[in-house]
TrEMBL record:
Domain of life: Bacteria
Family annotation (PANTHER family): NUCLEAR INTRON MATURASE 1, MITOCHONDRIAL-RELATED, PROTEIN YKFC
Family: Belongs to the bacterial reverse transcriptase family.
GO molecular function: RNA-directed DNA polymerase activity
Keywords tagged on the record: Nucleotidyltransferase, RNA-directed DNA polymerase, Transferase
Reverse transcriptase domain boundaries: 92-327
InterPro entries listed in its UniProt record: DNA/RNA_pol_sf, Group_II_RT_mat, GrpII_Intron_Splice-Mob/Def, Mat_intron_G2, RT_dom
Lineage, highest ranks first: Bacteria, Pseudomonadati, Bacteroidota, Cytophagia, Cytophagales
Pfam families in the cross-refs: GIIM, RVT_1
Name of the protein in question: Group II intron reverse transcriptase/maturase
């Protein structure tokens, strides 16, 4: 590629929607071409990610949709915008055009798991690397969207956890009540790079794109003590492109399960997958042959099932926990109807996580005003309800009553801690009074609007 000294078109900064639309048009063309031609491969995508509108759209998407955490360089979005977004993107563009771009190490962050002493490893790239990752993701994602199976719901355009929950319910009512609830051990940390690249090359032949992905996969990890550790397998959680790469790798398993002439299809087994969380659902008990076959596939892919958390159950006898929901089979209340129906509601674990967030919010906040505490509470409650309120699927009302009681207690304790005379009248019915006079989110009303929404 010739050495260029071009810079980002300044006029595009004032028209981000125009750049976004141009990206969507290109993505649509790539998707249609890949859908029509099963053997189509992307040979010349590198020049696309160097375009002004591509990098500008990548920057805005990273800023608005991903973590604001800083990488090893300590550079934040505020610092970038203070120094000039134009200069920041121009430098990236020039480095890409002359093939001088080299990614930085990934900063490791440890997130505590529910199991005491265990942590989930997150890798936070620099904002510069995240922007380039987003540009590559936008270029190659349409090619893979044309291939991905309908049973895959995680980190995909126009698909969500809600769709996965709906599909699980449909499968149960269709008689698929035997469930193989799988748990992959450290999936993102153990993806074999060699096998992943074999799958990538089925749709991507551009050496420049593959070289960038290779850089990100092998980038050293900066540990908490500042030392660098080499990366020989896996794709770091926290990277913009990691969810797409994880979907590409597990797509091989999706194709085996969904093969109409395969062993799973002959056994009447359906699949529901959200990223590395997946279920196999059958009408009959899973035979030893099927279980051995699953183990063999995982072994061939270089993945390992966590046998302690992987379960085989029947929905009428045991609760199924999936994506924060609990599926239970409950006898009908009507004496004339002897059938069971499937009750789907937020799990106790999901509720406990919300309570932990509320506990942290109220901790040492006696100096806050009511208006401020309401302003802090509303996004938390709204976000929780946005996820768990699914029209004609989830039964959330009992959970809402428990949350209201818990919130009333927390508000009462918080108001009482501000002094005996402070908010004495409001303390009598704290939740209801703050809903009525201060604009606190009405949980029941909001959930009702969500479940009645046409968007559902």
């Amino acid at each position: 590629m010739k050495n260029r000294t071009t810079c980002i078109d300044e006029s595009l900064l004032a028209r981000p929607s125009e750049s976004d639309e141009r990206v969507r048009v290109l993505q649509r063309k790539l998707y249609v071409r890949a859908k029509r031609e099963k053997g189509f491969k992307g040979y010349s995508l590198y020049d696309k990610i160097c375009q002004d509108y591509f990098l500008l759209t990548a920057y805005h998407r990273v800023k608005h949709n991903y973590s604001k955490g800083v990488g090893v360089d300590g550079q934040s979005f505020a610092a970038i915008e203070e120094g000039g977004v134009l200069d920041f993107l121009t430098k990236i563009q020039q480095d890409l055009q002359v093939r001088r771009y080299r990614c930085s190490p990934v900063r490791q962050v440890l997130i505590p798991k529910e199991t005491k002493g265990e942590y989930r490893k997150l890798g936070i790239p620099t904002i510069r690397d995240r922007v380039v990752q987003m540009a590559v993701k936008m270029a190659i994602e349409p090619l893979w969207e044309a291939d991905f199976c309908e049973t895959s719901y995680g980190f995909r355009p126009k698909k969500s956890a809600r769709d996965a929950i709906r599909q699980v319910k449909e499968n149960i009512y269709a008689g698929h009540k035997f469930v193989y609830d799988a748990d992959l051990s450290k999936y993102f940390d153990t993806i074999p790079h060699g096998k992943l690249f074999k799958l990538l090359k089925q749709r991507v032949k551009d050496g420049g794109i593959l070289d960038l992905i290779q850089q990100w996969l092998t980038a050293p990890v900066q540990l908490l003590d500042g030392t660098l550790e080499s990366s020989k397998e896996g794709t770091p959680q926290g990277g913009v492109i990691s969810p797409l790469l994880s979907n590409i790798y597990l797509h091989a398993f999706d194709r085996i399960v969904n093969n109409p002439d395969g062993k799973f299809a002959r056994a009447g087994i359906r699949m529901v997958r959200y990223a590395d969380d997946w279920l196999l659902m059958g009408k009959w008990y899973f035979s030893k042959s099927i279980l051995r076959y699953i183990d063999q596939i995982m072994s061939n892919m270089g993945l390992k099932l966590n046998k302690e958390k992987t379960r085989l159950l029947h929905i009428n006898k045991s609760s199924l926990f999936f994506l924060g929901f609990e599926f239970r089979s409950i006898p009908s209340k009507f004496t004339w109807n002897h059938r069971n129906y499937t009750n789907i509601q937020p799990s106790i674990k999901s509720r406990s996580k919300l309570f932990s967030v509320l506990k942290e919010l109220f901790r040492k906040r006696k100096h806050w005003t009511i208006e401020w505490i309401v302003w802090k509470l509303n996004p938390v409650l709204r976000g929780w309800l946005n996820y768990f309120s699914i029209s004609k699927v989830s039964h959330i009302w009992d959970t809402i009553r428990v949350i209201k009681q818990h919130l009333s207690y927390k508000l009462y304790k918080w108001m009482k801690g501000k002094g005996r005379k402070a908010h004495r009248k409001l303390r009598q019915r704290p939740y209801e009074n703050l809903v009525k006079f201060y604009g606190l989110l009405d949980l029941e009303e909001y959930a009702r609007l969500k479940t009645l929404s046409k968007a559902e």
